[in-house]
Design a protein that fits this description.
- The complex is a heterodimer of chains A (302) and B (267).
- In chain A, the strands form three sheets. In chain A, strands 1, 2, 3, 4, 5, 6, 8, 9, 10, 12, 13, 16, 17 and 18 form a 14-stranded mixed β-sheet that branches. In chain A, strands 7-11 form a two-stranded antiparallel sheet. In chain A, strands 14-15 form a two-stranded antiparallel sheet.
- The longest helix of chain A has 16 residues.
- Chain A is elongated, with a radius of gyration of 21 Å.
- Helix content of chain A is 23%, strand content 35%.
- Chain A is built from six helices and 18 strands.
- In chain A, helix 1 crosses helix 2 and helix 4 packs across helix 5.
- Chain B is mainly β.
- Chain B is 10% helix and 28% strand.
- In chain B, strand 14 and strand 15 form a beta hairpin.
- The longest helix of chain B is centred in the last third of the chain and has 13 residues.
- The radius of gyration of chain B is 19 Å and the shape is elongated.
- The chains are: A alpha+beta (302), B mainly beta (267).
- Chains A and B meet through strand 8 and strand 10 of A and helix 4 of B.
Chain lengths: 302, 267
């Protein structure tokens, strides 16, 4: 059987193993796009992995004034966690500390649906009795007096239990520079896909992990099979000429959105062809027994 | 199916109680049955057939033609469908209604939309006193939905309102928004004395400063309000005729009661 290649880059016949998550979208607006983005980036900072951050979050996309409820520029943010209670706590803390505090901001639901998470419903207490609610077009908003006027925050936002976390691509290449450049392209392409985020720094992870460790109490440790400096010592997954590996982790509101994002990522990576120095695109999995979602690269690029 | 039309052809010799003539009340009923419905309010009995000419069959959309200020309780307690009034209406138009739509081309008497819970009322002309106020035997004024008035509103507009939105384009009489518990009233034009009397929570949005301001309101100065942007856009989508912007002078009160309401005078 011949190997699947796109422009000379080998697409390894494997699959990304992903997990069910709970998630929501919120919309942050501000007087300018810059300040909406500052609030959003502050809120989604330190939210790369549920392993130690409590949530995975990121900026989904920028919104023009014609796309937001209040007619100001905005940003759509996605946030995910493993359980509803944890997501609720993370949402409250992050919006409370990072959006409420940001000059001129307002915060709205970005997802409908029956199931809801509290947004303004818990933050309103900051108003110390001076908060007011307004129902406009069937949606309830809280007006919380703050030093630059009022923080307007929708009472609730929708919740989805169909979210998926941990869709991923592993990019193998002959130079660090080539892998980084290819991954940057992929993150940009994935950024165009709706309903997904890439929560790691700039969308890229350089320290993929495996489950467990030789040390007690360490739940995740370096993915030695993909560490180029350990090729000669461990059961490596890397050819000898591979100098760097980077991973793109994708969280999405739905499984099809992740598949779409992975496809966009693969094509963006392979765009420059094997001559750039990219040798393989593969994906991380745990043998298929841990996560119910399997994204087979072969099917995704088909 | 065409809308069920009731045209007033004989001037009645008494006030009429048209509350039985709602979309739900007439659904599936035969013209003969409808004609037999009693709508009189005195010892002398009057039925629908005595004064109205019936046309059409679809009771989900009712149309009254030629009604006057003696036709009370049109659409009272409405729960679904649409009522169009080509003419005027008496007291209690759409009072306690829960859902659906009522549109009136003329004016109405007192208590229009009193204690309504939901739905939409659109009145092109003037309304009498206590529009959106407390209906007899009720605790609160408007508790949801939208009451829109094209002309002048009488006294006590939105008295003890609790939720929802009232829009008045031709000003209002005395005590506008009196004893309001919550909700929003938007008023364009001249308003009478004692606006916001006993306002607990809720918002009165006025396009100009009233001649008389209650001394129990505290001035917060002219500020910007992001929530007005939400309201402005909502109005643009549903009611293009009212532009509010987002800057307003805020008067907080009524300090004689809870004092958490506000009068916003648009800048």
């Amino acid at each position: 059987m011949s190997k699947l290649k796109i422009k000379g880059v080998e697409i390894v016949e494997t699959f990304a193993e992903a997990f069910p998550m709970v998630g929501t979208r919120i919309i942050i607006t501000a007087p300018t796009q810059k300040w909406a983005l500052i609030a959003a980036q502050t809120m989604t900072g330190f939210a790369t992995s549920v392993i130690a951050c409590g949530a995975e979050a990121g900026v989904e996309r920028l919104l023009g004034p014609d796309e937001t409820l209040d007619g100001r520029p905005g940003v759509a943010v996605l946030i995910f966690a493993m359980e509803i209670e944890k997501l609720q706590r993370q949402l409250r803390n992050r919006v409370g500390q990072c959006v409420l505090t940001s000059p001129g901001s307002a915060c709205f639901a970005g997802l409908g649906g029956e199931k809801k998470l509290k947004l303004g419903a818990s933050l309103r207490f900051f108003g110390d009795g001076w908060q007011m609610s307004k129902v406009i077009g069937g949606r309830r908003f809280w007006r919380i007096p703050v030093m630059d006027g009022e923080f307007v925050c929708e009472e609730k936002t929708g919740l989805t239990k169909n979210a998926v976390g941990g869709g991923n691509l592993l990019v193998l290449g002959r130079s660090h520079r080539a892998v980084l450049a290819a991954c940057v392209r992929a993150v940009k392409a994935i950024g165009e896909v709706p309903d997904v985020i890439t929560p790691f720094p700039g969308g890229i992870v350089r320290s993929g992990s495996k489950v467990g460790s030789k040390y007690k109490g360490q739940i995740a440790s370096t993915n030695d099979a993909y560490c180029p400096t350990l090729k000669g010592a461990v059961n490596t997954a890397l050819p000898l000429n591979v100098e760097a590996v980077m991973e793109i982790v994708i969280d999405g509101l739905t499984a099809p959105a992740i598949a779409k994002a992975m496809r966009a990522g693969i094509y963006a990576i392979a765009k420059a062809g094997a001559s750039e120095g990219i040798t393989h695109i593969t994906a991380g999995n745990y043998g298929g027994n841990l996560g119910p979602h399997h994204f087979h690269l072969k099917e995704i690029v088909a | 199916m065409s809308a069920l039309t009731l045209e007033l052809v004989t001037e009645p010799n008494q006030r009429l109680d048209l509350s039985p003539l709602t979309t739900a009340g007439l659904a599936g009923r035969k013209p003969k049955d409808i004609q037999a419905i009693a709508i009189g309010t005195t010892r002398e009995s009057v039925t629908v057939g005595d004064v109205f000419k019936l046309k059409g069959t679809d009771a989900a959309k009712l149309r009254f033609i030629g009604t006057d200020e003696r036709c009370d309780r049109i659409g009272q307690g409405l729960t679904e469908g649409e009522i169009i009034v080509d003419g005027s209406a008496g007291a209690y138009l759409g009072a306690t209604m829960r859902a659906g739509k009522i549109a009136v081309s003329g004016s109405t008497g007192p208590f229009a939309g009193a204690s309504m819970r939901g739905g939409m009322i659109d009145i092109a002309g003037d309304v009498g006193e206590r529009a959106g106020g407390v209906g007899v035997g009720e605790n609160y004024g408007v508790c949801g939905g939208r009451l829109s008035i094209g002309g002048k509103a009488g006294a006590m507009l939105g008295e003890r309102m609790r939720r929802g939105l009232i829009i008045g384009r031709g000003g209002a009489g005395d005590y506008a928004g009196a004893r309001m518990i919550a909700g929003s009233i938007l008023l364009k034009g001249r308003i009478g004395r004692w606006a916001g009397y006993g306002l607990r929570r809720g918002t009165l949005i006025l396009d100009k400063e009233p001649n008389d301001l209650l001394p129990t309101f505290g001035d917060c100065g002219t500020l910007h309000f992001d929530w007005l942007r939400l309201l402005d856009r909502q109005l643009k989508a549903t009611d293009g005729r009212f532009k509010i912007g987002y800057r307003a002078r805020r008067l907080i009160g009524d300090m004689a009661v809870l004092g958490k309401g506000e009068m916003l005078i648009l800048a």
